[in-house]
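Q: Hi! First time doing this. I have a protein sequence and I read that you can turn it into a structure. Is that right? Here it is:
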Amino acid sequence: MNFRFLSPTNHGIVDYVAAIALIAAPFVLGLGSSNPMAIWISVVSGIAVIIVSAATRYRYGLFKLIPFGGHLTLDMLVATAFMLVPSLFKLEGLDAAYYYINAVVVYWVVAVTASENRQSGND
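A: Yes, that's right. Below is the predicted 3D structure, encoded as structure tokens:
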């Protein structure tokens, strides 16, 4: 059974959806009660996801500067940063949970994404 079922193309779709969610969710969820940075770290992360996605060599990349493997490495770094954000910024409650959940989701997406060398040239 192949646990890496998410193609680079579908990963790209997930990236852009995640970027929109990172920008909008802090306002929808009312984050910022323990520290206003809970809002702005998410918004800046969402903007960064758009930039990195646009620069990645996959179907939905515009500039195709970053190899897909490098993109996955950046995703892992972001997930790790999300795990550290609650401690670094003294986040509590929903603010902290938001970053822990995002970290787990990003780790999971990377774990289930097929590497580019196992995909056809169009993915």
